[in-house]
Amino acid sequence: MSETGTVEQLVARSKAAQEQFAFVTQEQADAAARSVCKIVYDNAERLGVMAAEETRMGSAADKITKCRMKSSLIWESIKNEKTVGVINRLKDKQMLEIAKPLGAVACIIPSTNPVVTPMCNAAFALKTRNSVIFAPHPRAVECTKLLVEMFRGELAKFGFPEDLVLGLEKVSIEDSSRLMSLSDVVVATGGPAMVKAAYSSGKPSLGVGQGNVQCIVDTDADLSAAAEKILIGRSFDNGLICLGEQTVFVPENDFLAFIEEIKKHGGYYLESAEQVEKLREGIFPEGGAMNRDVVGLTAEQVGKVIGIEVPAKAKAIVAKADGIGREDVLCREKLCPVLTVYPYQTFEEGVAMMVENLDYEGKGHSIAIHSNTPEHVEYAAIQCAVSRVVVNQPAGTTGGGSPTNGFTATTTLGCGSWGNNSFSGNLSHTHFMNITRVGYPLEDSYLPDPELAWK
């Protein structure tokens, strides 16, 4: 990924490069950020296939789509943003806001997103005049190595220091921990253990929480449209996306009709209790950790592993849960195209069930709502401790930013204090800047009478 060196040497090189880049112009920062997004866009097929083959997870076709869409969406979202010099003049407060870089950013890369996550991190970092060092996942070392080479090659074309992008040579917990402790800032995208390690590194950290997206279908929703969108979100990249719908709550009176729509749109519904139990035991053996052998497989492949015959064209395996929250392990996050459904009597009851599932796992992340009643949407948004509420869209493909909504385009999703994260919302370039604020005297400044505050 770079010339061989210790973690200490890599960080020193990264910081030296960042110091050279710290006072470039806005146009230069933009050129660097654009280049890493464009190289992924131009090489989407190669990188998408490579990511699927090396990690042995997910869909190559979906990863290609993700490379193309995320690269263009992320660049589109940041290309006109000011990140150099004075970025805001607050005339009413007589203040200026000046952007400053953070320094060398350590980026922990997940196996589920080994191309677009480093691309996103690098684009945000370069846009704001930082440097990045990637710590690859053991299942995506070659993918990360190729990306680093590509990014460095693009930087060299502009005469920028190539060491603005580096990657760890060795993949180990020790080296990743050392990197986090030596860098200026940490961005950790991965499992709870890695995120916890980032927050324990002693450096400012931006980590993500665990997903378990709960979805509710309202009585006034179009069942066919809802079923189609839910299956799109659940099956994209073979269910690896943390934004993918996990459990769907459906009005009791519409439950059977909804299941028929699920079947029409490619869901394979398990009719018998024996099949559901086989699914439960196959995904979470003995009620414990998720079976790693099914992560990122197609619905048909998941069926083969757990002993259920599933049609080749099935988008997802769908099963009715036996209980809510800790009553049924199928209410947990499932990193494969498996969807749980459950009926509710009133909308309020359905929302309460979502809350219970989120308390079990996924608090702070996201929910999805299919409804034409704004009051219901707002009720669910108020009741659920989440950072994103996706309305009438496939959560799995739009919650991280989409042309169909206003969510910030990103690959890293904060879950706030609910998910033990330092931020809630979608990671953006603004998280990669320090802000210096300059305050002038107000033209009408005065010494206030403290009593006026209470009137």
UniProtKB/TrEMBL annotation:
GO terms for molecular function: oxidoreductase activity, acting on the aldehyde or oxo group of donors, NAD or NADP as acceptor. It holds the Pfam family Aldedh. Gene3D superfamilies: Aldehyde Dehydrogenase, Chain A, domain 1 (3.40.605.10), Aldehyde Dehydrogenase, Chain A, domain 2 (3.40.309.10). Residues 6-264 form the Aldehyde dehydrogenase domain. The keyword Oxidoreductase applies. It comes from the Bacteria. InterPro entries: Ald_DH/histidinol_DH, Ald_DH_C, Ald_DH_N, Aldehyde_DH_dom. Keywords: Oxidoreductase. This is Succinate-semialdehyde dehydrogenase. It comes from Enterococcus florum.
